[in-house]
Structure to design on (648 residues):
């Protein structure tokens, strides 16, 4: 019994609404945050920050955005990368064109712009549903990419639409070093993650789940389905927009519209399939998996076969393994790594007994 | 005016090629309710296998037969390893499984046959051909003929044979079909194999046109709006949708494109499909779904 809840009663509504009901969970979360904010910056090296931790955090945030829409509200989207692109380019333009606008404000404005665009492309969801909706999100995907490639105004007339990150200064502090970029990303991700947790455990989250499970039934019990769906699109796109801006500014530094293509959308979809639909934690697990797995695979192949597999072939194998994993997860663990974690927790609760 | 007609008919003929891919989708969707995103990868896989066999000196029909058998084996593997495991799951889950499947099939095709571009010559010269003063591509006419033959064949298969009738029963109501003794799994296998066959035909035609290469799997993205416009459950819909998308896409590219910077082919069909959906949410020929609580 490493983990028990006996004696921890919920006596007030305020308690009932807490993120973590158990003392152990709260403690673990606090320790995790302390570790991420205080310990990691002093022990990590630049490779870890730039190549693993920052993309992990940004992809988690993007997964979170898509999960709100697909996992909670049940609207399948294949256009996540488009909303990331809108976020990135909007933030860039706000920062560029309005003198002295703080970075955080332009980030938020960029996110809001993405939210607005998401709302527009979510409008067809009022009339169509299911697979027919894919067409709307794919339209967003191709249209947005076309706009940013063809109209160079958005990238300040740079060739082929490449944008470069401005210097990252927030509240007078310099965040340009790898550690700084990591901390900036981490702060944004933690704040938005907690916000998402609040949303999904509140009224709106419940409405999303009702619409996901059966929209006709939801309408019958008095939920305004159009409003709920549109809010899902807007909020999800807001998250994706912020993730896109972070992807461009704190991870890559320079980005072109092509960096937000359909492959990126699929990658984010895979994060939520592997991590777990309808789970906040799942996005982080899924993103960690997506970031670490290719690295592991290439290390493994260079270690085991010592270059016997050429890179092109390795890419094919990686693709096949990824596809197989997706199918494996869908068959064996449709609720993803988040469900695996739940099972582990349950085991810890009753340990050393089996049930 | 002649130029307009030329663009228009050229678009219609190109649309036939989209229809060919879309038909594969419709077959599978009708029989198993699976929205098969891997259809594009199957086209790629079939075309790559075929062209690699031809390059190794196997005659056309021999290569065709071997590829067909390969596609049937692939269909069997998909049925046993994926579909059977996912019986009774939500359509979205099945869709995502086919997304994973497309990764596997693409990876497999390129791992076995390599990633270089293969030229495929099926002995039709692509010289323009004049009909009533309009220049038409001979190759496109040939492709349209093949597509027409294929549709007639499928029409016969589905309307006159036992398999076709059981397929229509399954499309109508899976449970009822099971209850009267239709072997669902065998039917799925047949349908996936037929979709593989359609994919092979589409792959050969597309491959002869643009070369057999990875981008062939991306025609799935061209076929999607076709399906949406036509409706997921109708072969006629796939044909009509293909014609609409092909013609309007070419017309838009030629007449509207230059005004707003060109390159609109990528997204124009999707916007068109969205407009169609606003009027008819289940496509032109799709079955209307009735929802109950």
């Amino acid at each position: 019994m490493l983990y028990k809840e006996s004696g921890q009663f919920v006596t007030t509504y305020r308690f009932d609404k807490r993120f973590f009901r158990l003392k152990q969970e709260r403690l673990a979360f606090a320790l995790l945050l302390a570790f991420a904010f205080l310990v990691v910056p002093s022990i990590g090296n630049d490779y870890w920050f730039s190549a693993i931790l920052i993309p992990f955090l940004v992809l988690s945030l993007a997964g979170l955005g898509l999960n709100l829409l697909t996992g909670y509200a049940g609207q399948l989207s294949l256009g996540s990368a488009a909303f990331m692109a809108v976020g990135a380019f909007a933030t860039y333009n706000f920062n560029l064109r309005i003198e002295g606008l703080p970075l955080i404000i332009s980030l938020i404005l960029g996110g809001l712009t993405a939210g607005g665009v998401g709302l527009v492309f979510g409008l067809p969801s009022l009339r169509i549903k299911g697979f027919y909706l894919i067409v709307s999100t794919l339209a967003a995907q191709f249209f947005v990419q076309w706009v940013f490639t063809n109209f160079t105004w958005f990238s300040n007339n740079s060739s082929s639409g490449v944008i470069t990150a401005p210097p990252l200064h927030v509240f007078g502090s310099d965040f340009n070093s790898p550690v700084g970029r990591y901390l900036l990303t981490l702060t944004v991700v933690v704040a938005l993650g907690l916000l998402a947790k609040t949303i999904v455990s509140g009224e709106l989250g419940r409405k999303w789940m009702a619409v996901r499970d059966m929209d006709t039934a939801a309408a019958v019990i008095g939920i305004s389905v159009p409003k709920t769906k549109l809010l899902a699109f807007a909020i999800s796109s807001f998250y994706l927009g912020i993730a896109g801006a972070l992807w461009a500014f704190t991870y890559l530094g320079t980005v072109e519209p092509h960096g937000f293509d359909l492959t990126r959308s699929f990658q984010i979809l895979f994060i939520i399939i592997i991590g777990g639909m309808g789970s906040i934690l799942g996005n982080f697990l899924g993103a960690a998996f997506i970031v670490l797995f290719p690295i592991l695979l290439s290390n493994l192949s260079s270690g085991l076969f010592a270059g016997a597999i050429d890179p092109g072939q390795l890419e094919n194998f990686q693709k096949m393994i990824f596809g197989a994993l997706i199918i494996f997860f869908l068959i064996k663990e449709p609720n993803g790594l988040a469900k695996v974690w739940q099972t582990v927790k349950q085991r810890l609760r009753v340990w050393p007994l089996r049930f | 005016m002649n130029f307009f007609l030329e663009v228009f008919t050229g678009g219609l003929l190109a649309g036939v090629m989209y229809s060919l891919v879309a038909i594969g989708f419709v077959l599978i969707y009708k029989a198993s309710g699976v929205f098969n995103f891997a259809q594009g990868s199957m086209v790629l896989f079939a075309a790559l296998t075929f062209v690699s066999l031809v390059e190794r000196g196997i005659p056309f029909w021999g290569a065709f037969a071997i590829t067909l058998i390969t596609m049937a084996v692939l269909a069997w593997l998909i049925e046993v390893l994926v579909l059977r495991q996912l019986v009774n799951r939500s359509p979205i889950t099945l869709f995502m499984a086919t997304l994973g499947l497309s990764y596997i099939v693409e990876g497999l095709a390129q791992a076995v046959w390599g990633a270089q571009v293969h030229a495929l010559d099926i002995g039709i010269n692509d010289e323009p051909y004049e009909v009533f003063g309009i220049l038409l591509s001979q190759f496109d006419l040939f492709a349209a003929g093949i597509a027409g033959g294929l549709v007639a064949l499928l029409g016969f298969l589905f309307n006159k044979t036992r398999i076709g009738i059981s397929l229509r029963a399954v499309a109508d109501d899976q449970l009822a079909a099971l209850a009267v003794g239709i072997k669902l799994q065998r039917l799925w296998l047949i349908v996936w194999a037929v979709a593989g066959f359609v994919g092979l035909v589409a792959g050969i035609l597309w491959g002869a046109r643009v070369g057999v290469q990875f981008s062939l799997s991306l025609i799935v993205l061209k076929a999607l709006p076709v399906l949406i416009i036509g409706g997921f459950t109708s072969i006629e819909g796939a044909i009509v949708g293909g014609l609409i998308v092909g013609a309007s896409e070419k017309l838009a590219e030629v007449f509207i494109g230059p005004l707003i910077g060109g390159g609109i082919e990528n997204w124009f069909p999707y916007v068109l499909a969205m407009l169609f959906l606003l009027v008819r949410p289940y496509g032109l020929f799709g079955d209307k779904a009735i929802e109950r609580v």
Strands of chain B lie at 128-131, 134-137. Residues 2-216 of chain B form one domain. Chain B has a mean pLDDT of 83.
